[in-house]
Predict the 3D structure of the following.
Amino acid sequence: MRWNVDLHSRLPLRDQIADCVRRGVTAGDLRVGDPLPPAAELAEALDVDRNTVLAAYRGLRTEGVLEFRRGRGVRVVRAPEREQAVVDAAAMLVDAGRAHGVGREGLIQLIREMT
Amino acid sequence: MTAADAGTHVHSDRATNWPAQAVGAALMVPLAVMAVPAIGAWASARFLVPVLLMLAVIAFNLATASSMRTLVGPRGVLVSFGVFGWPRFRYPLERIASARVVTIPSAMWMWGIWWTPWGGLRLTLRGGPALELTLTNGRRVTVSADDPQAAVAAISANSGAPAP
């Protein structure tokens, strides 16, 4: 599971860390039930403050993606909501298909070829 | 520097051995059954003490050797065992001369924390893919990991060295 933060980015570190979790789940590097590294360890590895990682984890818990359990640590319990940008692009693809007579099977075949 | 190189690159990895945990748990049952009647009879302390010791060892192994976590980043490699994240082993990048992916055979008796003069330090809990570090003092450390290739890439990225 890859974690990437850019200290020079304008995006707050805790949002970058939360995005790492979301990307991990979307990419399949993290599955429902998988534990995340303890906040203190991840913070040390990323060279950020422990509270920054905790803030990221807490935000994801509020979203329902993570669960904190005594003795079991932090676990993924639900996939995050689909990335809106991807949903929007898919809607455009479906519209384009409709306009050019490409139906569901054609679109699925196209995606298979591209991925 | 490409966009992918910008920022901090950390790889977190986890290796588990659930069958070993199930076997360990199964072993606890007959041992507990043996210990319970002995508890009331102090005359059988000679029986009770070794049994409790075995329970303690198995409980320790359950807590430490059924899962392990590896974190790779700019601060080096951190390996920690089990539920408590202890014992743990740290290797700063300056101490790591090279890293590669290896496959270790499934030799049950060598799981956990083992050191041999020929094999170096082994931090493993199953056969299969592992990360092998060669330290600057020549010593080798082998660590069970689910994605050792990504761990090697993270070590290279953080060392500023080209990937092998």
Notes: Chain B touches chain A at residues 6-14, 69, 71-75, 78, 80, 83, 85, 150, 154 (CB under 8 Å).
